[in-house]
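The records we work with from here on pair a chain with its fold. Taken together, the tokens spell out the fold as the letters spell out the chain. To see the layout at work, look at the sequence and tokens printed below.
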Amino acid sequence: MCGERRDARPTACIGRICTVPLAKSQIFPLMDRGSNPLQAISMRMEQAATIPTRSWAAGDARGFRRVMAAAAWRHRYVHGLALALFVLAVVVGRHTGNMPDTGALADFGFYLIVALWAGCCGFAIVRLAWLAAVERERAPLSAMLRSFRRFFADRERIANGLNGIAAFTVFATAFAVRKGAIAILSPFTWDKDLSTAGRMLHFGRLPYEWLWWIAQSPLAVRLFNLAYNFWFVVLIASMFVVAITRRDTRLRHQYMLSLMLVWAVGGFFVAMGFSSAGPCYFADLGLGGDYLPLMKALDAANRVYPIWALSTQKMLWSGYIGSGAGSIGISAFPSIHVATAVLFALYASRRSRVAGALMWAFAATIMVGSVVLAWHYAVDGYAGALISLTIWKLTGRWLDRFSPEGVAKA
């Protein structure tokens, strides 16, 4: 605490940090020189704003532990769900003997890390250009570095981020095991029925036949493949953005819980009940040649542009038939790609109309791409979207009644 003396000069106090008494000339040095008083005050406020950052960087460990403990308690539902799904994965893995293909997971992880690094570099370049061209900073690089220091020195943000990322990591690790066990626990038996349902819903034609004008264009197929792979980048970006948000809100918890539940309920339990491989494996399952024209069109596009979906489909099938060292899983119904893209849109719509519109357009692109690239039957995507909407609504209502204390409403 700062003591008071009758002859005391003004003291500078910020939070629990107090400096020695300051003379008037030290508080307003520029005013003593006849400069603009508002400029002097602004400079002092900017200098003072850096003091808490230096204090935490110097090691306010006890304070950070309190912030971290409070954040962990606020995230108890998120951590509890992630751990429950991890335990389920352990039980399933031990029962089936199926473990994720570490080589495939490593490849995906590498590409995602590269994408994240590229995204961070792109953001830094855009931010630097903005500071230089729009805000007219005299030292844009220094201003950008200061903003990064403030960002990473925020204890609330770091505590939220560590809790969110930890929960997402546990959840994602467990999902790889569960998905790889689906075909072992429940062999593919629903492909023919799902294909028939798609034909009935689309007026007697297979859904891809309505999209043939896309499938026969190598460039269009290439663009949809790029968008489909970009889904992974959006997924990782959404996890990080939601995790490191400074203000802990119900919307943030709604997204984290909904994502885990969609992947658990839709990506495991519903997938077990409607076990299916997808159109790209229709002929391999001995079900006929209904999708051979689509696969030939994809092969033709692959001779013009690299269509990564084809190589990934071959890798997954090799794992399924046992020629690979494991499998990260084949499962068509419901489409988790579409389900998750709908979650992106639901969350983004609550944050910004523009972001929401972009994410709904992205979800529609993923829906079309899942059919054109032969990953899914159309009904897979419809079911995925319905599951996401249902879980999003139910999770929101549950949080309205049982939201952890300390979590803001909006």
About this structure: The two ends are 35 Å apart (CA to CA). The chain is about 70% helix and 0% strand. Residues 102-133 form the longest helix (32 residues).
